[in-house]
Write a structure and sequence with these properties.
This protein is α/β, with parallel strands linked by helices. The protein has helices spanning about 1-15, 45-55, 70-75, 110, 120-125, 130-145, 155-160, 165-180, 200, 205-210, 245-255; strands spanning about 25-30, 60-65, 85-90, 185-190, 220-225. It has a five-stranded parallel β-sheet with strand order 2-1-3-4-5, sandwiched between helices. α2 (about 45-55) links the parallel β1 and β2. The longest helix is centred in the middle third of the chain and has 17 residues, at about 130-145. The protein is globular and about 55 Å long. The relative contact order is 0.14.
Length: about 260
């Protein structure tokens, strides 16, 4: 999706970076902002488009399913910052381990997994067939029901419960860079919407504590379980928000913008 995302930016760049004082609203994210091709009945795009029209703002949709936090960081670096800019940025918790060192570029060769390093552990085998993928989803639900945590040793578990300090340091560096923006920055941290989170257990999630204690005070961080926590997803296996979740979260963001 990187090439498609670059093309979207190329088409918007001239107006997005034009020298004028009108308020510009940038929606930056992935399928959690626009999940229509993943089965969602709605996306956030019409909500923010209509809000911008009502407020007489210019709206720039930089949300594309299949993009990652790395793609989004590259877009951030190309937007000319203005005091009147408003940025609404989606980060899904699955991405917190995927941010690379900003001081270097990952080569194509480095992205490949050497054959000799492939380990066929039981959790890896869960990805090999639809039946086993279904089993993994069921186990996630059972663990969340009884233990209030995702299935251990999965990517989701490592992203939410035990992300590495190195991954969080890279994320904090990126987010504190966003703090230097002159415009208003709102970050929505999206957790899977097909789970219900026990409020007292959220503090045990390392990623939840990280965002709550983020030292970058000039950005507004919203974590989805604190806004919507009723298993309002597209369906029981689909992690994306349904229309009810989207509307509730949009209304909250709208209040932050007023």
């Amino acid at each position: 999706r990187s090439q498609q995302y670059d093309k979207i930016w190329t088409n918007l760049a001239a107006n997005a970076n034009a020298e004028y004082d009108k308020t510009r609203l940038f929606l930056i994210g992935d399928s959690f902002f626009d999940a229509e091709e993943y089965g969602g009945k709605e996306s956030y795009v019409p909500y923010f488009s209509q809000l911008s029209l009502k407020k007489n703002w210019d709206f720039f949709n930089l949300s594309l399913a299949g993009t990652s936090i790395e793609n989004h960081r590259q877009i951030w670096n190309q937007i000319n910052d203005k005091p009147n800019n408003i940025y609404v940025f989606s980060i899904k918790v699955h991405d917190v381990t995927k941010l690379t060192d900003s001081s270097r570029i990952t080569t194509a060769e480095e992205k490949k997994t050497p054959t000799e390093e492939i380990q066929f552990e039981p959790i890896d085998l869960l990805r090999k067939s639809d039946v086993l993928y279904l089993l993994k989803d069921l186990l996630h639900q059972l663990f969340m029901w009884f233990n209030h945590t995702p299935l251990p040793n999965t990517h989701l578990y490592k992203s939410i419960v035990e992300p590495s300090d190195e991954d969080l340091d890279r994320l904090a560096e990126f987010l504190c860079y966003l703090e230097t923006r002159k415009g208003k920055v709102i970050i929505l941290v999206n957790y899977p919407f097909n789970f219900r989170y026990k409020e007292e257990k959220l503090e045990q999630f390392k990623i939840f504590r990280f965002f709550n204690k983020l030292p970058c005070k000039n950005i507004n961080v919203l974590q989805s379980p604190t806004l919507v926590n009723k298993k309002e997803s597209v369906d029981w296996r689909n992690v994306h928000p349904n229309s009810t979740s989207m509307r509730a979260i949009f209304n909250h963001i709208k209040e932050e913008l007023n």
